[in-house]
Amino acid sequence: MSELSSRIAGIGAHLPARILSNDELSAMVDTSDCWVRERTGIRQRHIAAEDETTADLAEIAARRALDDAGLSADDIDVIVMATTTPDFTFPATATQIQARLGMTRGFAFDVQAVCTGFIYALSVADNFLARGQARHALVIGAETMSRIVDWTDRTTCVLFGDGAGAVVLSAEEKADPPNGILATYLRSDGRYKDLLHVDGGPSSTQSTGHLRMTGNQVFRHAVTNIAESMTTLCERAGYQISEIDWFVPHQANQRILEGVARKLSIPSQNVISTVADHGNTSAASVPLALHRAVEDGRIKRGDLVLMEALGGGFTWGAALVRF
Ligand code: ACO
Which entry of 91, 107, 164, 197 is 20 to 30 Å from 216 by CA? Predict the structure, then answer.
């Protein structure tokens, strides 16, 4: 049997209409536009309306990705959705997207790896396609982080935003040299839970809880672990960092993006940054950044793209793609 690889056949994104500026935030907590911009690079974030859920954002991004791929929901065999802010404790939000798209075949499930969620979901879907268990997959990263942020805690509430991004993966015979997803690398280390977690859950507190983070310690781990995942992935896949056309990082903090780029001698013009406009949208941030760079023409077919993320757990990882 011939070997299969997963090509990104389509991409879509969606952001809620409401924009929350740093100035508006400084009327809510003791912060300032200057502090937030200098420490994080964030200027604004999008916030879901009261009646707008993660599934609402995800559905729009998913439909746009399907349109871009020229496929319909009937073509999709599996939906893998990364989210930390599901509409309900169960069922999986992915199954709600399946129903909304009118997809009555195949299967759908959620993946929970916080900000690394999209990289995990991409890797999981790639494995289904590579093994011939699915021909087309919808991979979604969608969040309403505004629902788990403590809006009285200035150390976290200024950082996060809401949004959704999605890609369609299609299986094709492996080309020489290969196209599509070339390699993925996933890691986690549960010892670091206390540095970044939500202080509630169905089994512990019977409530949703709020996001808690020791930001400066997460920052240090982020730069080290992200750089490690990028170099390890490239080594394993047989590429040099200098061969990468575009880096699409998780958008947590502009200083993390710059720290990693400096450590690996990556020119800043090769790093896609949307953190100023979106803040940290957790699992949605990588596909939102990828979407922007594809839409504005920077990332073109055939370009070598390296995506990476780190999130609560800790989880971290990277994906190398010939777009
Ligand atoms: N406005 C004004 N002052 C603030 C604010 C604010 N919004 N937030 C914190 N401060 C104050 C602190 O209270 C502290 O004051 P003190 O010195 O009087 O105690 C001072 O600023 C410095 O605080 P630090 O936490 O040391 O500031 P730092 O430069 O580290 O920036 C930040 C904080 C932006 C959170 C940074 O550490 C960061 O980005 N960390 C990583 C976040 C991240 O990567 N998350 C990834 C994954 S998220 C996920 O998985 C869900």
Answer: 164
List Cα–Cα distances, 263 to 223, 226, 227, 241, 249, in angstroms. 8, 10, 7, 11, 14
pTM exceeds 0.90, yes or no: yes
Give the position of tokens 């599509």.
Answer: 180
Give me ligand 1 centre to Cα 35, in Å: 10
Q: Please tell me if the CB atom of residue 171 comes closer than 6 angstroms to any atom of ligand 1.
A: no
Q: Is the dihedral of CA 241, 259, 163, 314 positive or negative?
A: positive
Give the model's pLDDT for residue 1: 58
- E strands, 42-77, where? 44-46
**Which domains are delineated in the chain?**
4-173 (3.40.47.10), 180-322 (3.40.47.10)
Q: Whose CA is nearest to atom 8 of ligand 1?
A: 155
Residue 12: CB within 6 Å of ligand 1?
no
Determine the residue type at 320: L
Q: Cα(206) to centroid of ligand 1, in Å?
A: 29
Q: Do the Cβ atoms of 116 and 26 come closer than 8 Å?
A: no
pLDDT of 173 above 70: yes
The CB of 265 under 6 Å from ligand 1? The reply is: no
**Token output for 237:** 């896949």
DSSP percent split of the chain into helix, strand, coil, nearest 5: 40, 25, 35
The predicted pLDDT at position 174 comes to 92
* Tens-digit pLDDT profile for residues 120-131: 999 999 999 999
Residue 171 CA, distance from chain mean position: 21
Closest to 243 (Cα-Cα) out of 263, 264, 228: 264
Ligand 1: centre distance to CA 5 (Å) = 41
Ligand 1 neighbour 22 (Cβ under 6 A)? no
pLDDT at residue 95 tops 70: yes
